[in-house]
Amino acid sequence: xxxxTFEKQLDAKxxxxxxxxxxxxxxxxxxxxxxxxxxxxxxxEGGGAALFETYKRLIxxxxxxxxxxxxxxxxxxxxxxxxxxxxxxxxxxPETLCDMFGLTDWVTVVGMGDRFQIWGxxxxxxxxxxxxxxARQGLADLRAAQRAARLRVAG
Length: 155
Hints:
two-stranded antiparallel sheet, 5 helices, 155 residues, six-stranded antiparallel β-sheet, Chemotaxis protein chec, alpha+beta
């Protein structure tokens, strides 16, 4: 699993060192990662062969010609970049993705279990605060639902 959060500096060629823990999780048909614009947030999403297979299965669940399938194919397959590791474990982020998300200097690499995200540092700080609020409220709602279910069973 991709775990933890790392701050990395982009060099002049838009390269970042992928955390060694992340490199170990990306085994697949080539030595590197896939990256694409995230559908869920304003960041780059990345991972290995398992992430690609997850998206492929999701797309194939939809009928050919379904507008949602076409949108996913365009966003995922059309936006995908294969980024190989150099000898120092770096990847070079495509200029189009850097421009799309305003990545110019420091970035934050965030483990998300089966994938990771690359954010501009300031953008991630704002995003993380919002996610903590959602997680806090979601956990409270879940606990309330669990208590209510236990009461129904006991009563």
